[in-house]
Amino acid sequence: MVDMKSMNAVEYIADHASNLEYDMLPPLALKRAGQVIVDTICCALGAKDTHLGKLAGEFAMATEPGSESVLWGTDTKLSAAGAAWANAVASKHLEMDDSHRVCGHVAAELVPLAIALCEQRGMSGKELVTIIAAGYDVFGAIQPGVKVAQRERGLDHKSQAGTLASAVVAALAMGLDKDKIANALALSMDMASGTEQYVFDAGLCDTKDLLSGYAVRNGMYAAQLAEAGFQGPPGALDGEYGYYHAFGDGYDPEFLAGIGKDFVIAETGFKPHAGCRHVHACVDATNNLLEQGQPDLSQIEKIKVGSYKNAITPSFRVKYDCDSVNQAGFSLPVTVSVVLNRGSWYKEDIAAFDQAAVQELVPKVEVVLDEQINADWPEKNGCRVEVTTKSGDLFEGHVSYALGEPENMLSDAEFEAKFRYLANGAIPEDNITALCNMVDTVGDINDVSELVNLTLPK
Question: Which of 161, 229, 241, 394 yields a CA-CA distance of 20 to 30 A from 100?
Fold first, then answer.
């Protein structure tokens, strides 16, 4: 890597991406890459038969027919762009995709695209892993610098940083040189848009999942433009009107200081539960409470949930009168009430949000800012749950990190249980087993089609 001072931000990131090699990745990055790949595929398989999963597949079949890449969970091939888009939308839908504490949700915008293009071109597992790792590094170089301002403005990281990172992923898979990778990244800046209005209109729109599809589609289009010779603005990131200014508060060279030194994919987290990641520490704290003693739910007088600011604001995170499953998946009062009743937080548990036993507890929940937990954010993402009964008994549960964070990582057995839960019924049992085993061997395959063939229904 050359001196940062001799390049603008676009050139510097493109230089890193174009020079990254498989052998540069440390063991933990390789392990996480295998987990990210299988996790993303299984998330998509789990959504295959949902309304949105079917709709995305049908739309891609109608608009992007082809013979290049597989629509996971089916025996249908589409264009690489069509398969990448539909698989991206599906992999986001169940909200069990990966979750980085700083970068947010990354995999849905990168993994389906990388797999589709590598499959189309007969590329190896090592190439796939390297491309995905590079995409994570791009995400990590861009998202932290705009995260605070982005949230304040109601913008969405998946279709913004996701578009930029997916442009680099596509350019790498297409074999473009460093200059064209830089142009793909620069061109994608003007396609990077999206808001989080979907969280207020949850249940009334499909945008949450389509944003990942937008990133995939726009990133690939930017790479195709660069391949054809189109040029983007050199100051697309650090220029006076570049990305860091438009979506953040301006550019700081420190944003890029870790690229090539710290591998972002090694720092990613995974979601063992469904719903919004910000409610997961509440799930785990409630389960921690239940492990120590089961309160009589009929005798509960009040429930107190304390967490960090980003977990309890805006208002949809403390919504008491949810009208849909989509809204319930973001609500802390619903989360703690469901988990107290059911002990888990999968899609079928969230769907039970309107059951009488759950609704009886929801009004008893008080959500507060826990000063210590908030002070530890974002280095930690903890939660504290207290249940007080009518007789004065106190039950408490606490976690410093949600399960699946790097400091509280899922065991191999827990990963496999998640994969089997998601893929069950979508593909044969033997394929599920082989897919689980692929976590540690994806870098050894000669052709990515060996991986993709495990997603076929028979």
Answer: 241
